[in-house]
Design a protein that fits this description.
312 residues; 17 strands; 7 helices; alpha/beta; FAD/NAD(P)-binding domain; single chain
Length: 312
């Protein structure tokens, strides 16, 4: 028989663990289930925009979230939620090895890295094609590295990758780098980093590992004798954004946006009664750890109000 809870939190990142803290403070019987303790923030090298933490590694920050949630005796289960069913006025949450019955659910699954879909991507995944600079950049010390993307993640991670690689090439489809000004300035002032505008990758090439990237037009890197439409690199990091992990919510009939994100109001309520959302899987435009944390808190408050009404 499934254990019963006032709230089952799906996701153990900034949003999910913040929800767990407050659900615990509200006295709700709570369980938090997630595959990655601390969430994707743990794959970030340095976090420098979370008040009042002036600078902290993503790994340490994720650990602090986890420790804080456990202070309120909220069990955090490292499992993958495979299915959620509506049952007896509540929700049955199923993992590969267990089941949890919740009066409410707070859905905070976050996102996964967006793929390019280009030839060679699947074949060379983790063999030169990567999505996490902190996770995999250290394998390419002294090597040439490419980045696909122009947003804040691409710009910020270029500086990290420059500490490992001999050269870092940023391939920008448009005509400008985006993201925070401080990150752009840091990247553009780094002699190891070169930015190429108006160019796209079309194919990842390699037999056992990545050897080169085919491009839509010829470019000339520093020190090269001529232009080329094939960039020889040992690694490429695809940093073109994220995709919300919302398939389970969709299967329950929760309303999503055209981007596949969960529609929530400012208190984390969705179109399904008793089902709340928080964090990067939702339709808040500005995806930041501090925003996710605040949404988790709001969702926990709403879940508490909902449970109190059920008990009247």
């Amino acid at each position: 028989m499934a254990d019963s809870f006032d709230v089952v939190i799906v996701g153990a990142g900034c949003a999910g663990l913040s929800a767990a803290m407050y659900a615990g403070r509200f006295g709700l019987k709570t369980v938090c289930i997630g595959e990655m303790p601390g969430g994707t923030i743990t794959t970030t090298d340095a976090v420098e925009n979370y008040p009042p933490l002036k600078s902290i590694s993503g790994l340490e920050m994720g650990q602090k979230f986890l420790e804080h949630a456990k202070e309120y005796n909220v069990p955090v289960k490292m499992e993958r939620v495979e299915k959620i069913e509506k049952q007896n006025g509540g929700f049955l949450v199923k993992t590969g090895s267990d089941e949890y019955l919740g009066k409410t659910v707070i859905y905070a699954t976050g996102t996964e890295w967006r793929k390019t879909g280009m030839p060679g991507e699947k074949k060379l995944a983790n063999r030169g094609v990567h999505y996490c600079a902190l996770c995999d950049g250290g394998f390419y010390k002294g090597k040439k590295i490419a980045i696909i993307g122009s947003g804040d993640s691409a710009v910020k991670e270029s500086s990290l990758l420059a500490t490992f690689g001999s050269n870092v090439y940023i391939l920008v489809r448009g005509d400008a780098l985006k993201g925070e000004r401080i990150n752009r300035e840091k990247a553009l002032s780094n002699g190891k980093i070169e930015v190429f505008y108006g160019v796209e990758a079309t194919e990842f090439v390699g037999t056992e590992k990545l050897e080169k990237i085919k491009l839509t037009k010829a470019i000339k890197v520093k020190g090269a004798d001529a232009e080329t439409d094939e960039l020889e690199v040992s690694a490429v990091f695809v940093l073109i954004g994220h995709v919300a992990q919302t398939e389970i919510a969709k299967s329950l009939g929760v309303e999503l946006t055209s981007k596949g994100e969960i529609k929530i109001d400012k208190m984390g309520r969705t179109t399904l009664e008793g089902f709340f959302g928080a964090g990067d899987c939702c339709n808040t435009e500005f995806k930041q750890a501090i925003v996710s944390a605040s949404e988790g808190v709001s969702a926990a408050y709403s879940a508490n109000e909902y449970v109190k009404k059920l008990e009247k």
